[in-house]
Specification:
Layout: H1 4-22, H2 29-36, H3 40-46, H4 50-74, H5 80-93, H6 95-103, H7 105-110, H8 114-129, H9 135-154, H10 160-175
Helix pairs in contact: 1-2, 1-6, 4-8, 5-9, 5-10, 8-9, 9-10
């Protein structure tokens, strides 16, 4: 019999796949339980609600991104190349979760997570340009970081190294950085 932590992880894995394919609100907890071959009460043992299950999937990703940003903000000097590369790597590593979050923005808002996610873009621009970037600087940063995130999910069949090189080159060009 699987350990509870194994069952919890299996529930999250199946839920992530179903939520991404069908949407959070169109996926029932019974469907997740059926897919796993467990009872609905067994699922409720691990997650008391669909919202708790969604939060358990996206919160670790959000916490990791927060940690990444905080670590960058703690540096005496930010290396724009390392910042952009780290941002790409994070989003590439979590692209399935990112797709889920993008598809379920209203769910994230209902869970109180969307404001936190949106605040990151301002923090990223501040890392590149200081606490009060101009409109031109802020828009370039939004395009660069948004483009990196988009590339990680838009080109799923492109080999990692090729995609990383091309996406970072695009972000550098947007920001006026040399490779």
């Amino acid at each position: 019999m699987p350990r509870p932590s194994d069952t919890k992880q299996r529930i999250q894995d199946v839920a992530r796949e179903l939520f991404t394919r069908q949407g959070v609100h169109r996926t029932s907890l019974q469907e997740i339980a059926d897919q796993l071959g467990i009872t609905k009460p067994a699922l409720y043992y691990h997650f008391s609600s669909r919202e708790e299950l969604v939060r358990s999937i996206v919160a670790p990703i959000i916490d990791e991104e927060e940690a990444f940003l905080s670590a960058q903000e703690a540096l005496p000097e930010v290396d724009p190349h390392a910042l952009l590369a780290g941002y790409f790597d994070f989003h590439y590593r979590h692209r399935d979760g990112i797709v889920l979050m993008l598809a379920e923005l209203t769910t994230l808002a209902d869970l109180g997570l969307i404001d936190r996610v949106m605040h990151w873009r301002r923090r990223l621009a501040a890392l590149l340009y200081g606490p009060t970037p101009t409109l031109d600087q802020a828009t370039r940063a939004a395009i660069a970081f948004g483009g990196l995130q988009d590339c990680t999910i838009q080109f799923p069949d492109t080999p990692h190294d090729d995609l990383r090189r091309a996406a970072l080159a695009g972000a550098y060009a947007t920001l006026g950085l040399t490779s």
